[in-house]
Specification:
By secondary structure, the chain is of the alpha+beta class. The protein is built from two helices and five strands; from the N terminus they run αββαβββ.
Length: about 100
């Protein structure tokens, strides 16, 4: 199988896995990205939740990820990382801190 065909099949599998996540997720993401850079061995999945820390935490709990929170300027970046069907996922949000 060619390199390009292998990448196409990996993309298709990642898109299918993302579809299964969205179909069963208690919190529906605002956006979903499937990324497959030339230097990666597998595609990765990114789920954005608009201004919704609780949704990221719920997503992590449902799909076995772990949450972290980092200060980024005047905002808090909350993310969850984990693995689903062999694909690494990141769920995230950015929320401005109260003054």
């Amino acid at each position: 199988m060619s390199y390009d065909q292998t990448r196409r099949e990996a993309y298709a599998a990642a898109v299918a896995a993302a579809g299964r996540i969205v179909a069963t997720a208690e919190a529906v993401p605002t956006t979903l990205d499937v990324e497959f850079t030339p230097w990666d061995d597998q595609p990765s999945l990114r789920f954005y939740f608009h201004l919704d820390v609780a949704a990221v935490e719920q997503f992590a709990g449902q799909f076995g990820g772990y949450c972290t929170c980092e200060v980024q300027g005047a905002s808090d970046y909350t993310s969850a990382r984990g693995e689903f069907e062999g694909f690494v996922f990141t769920a995230w949000t950015l929320v401005e801190r109260a003054a």
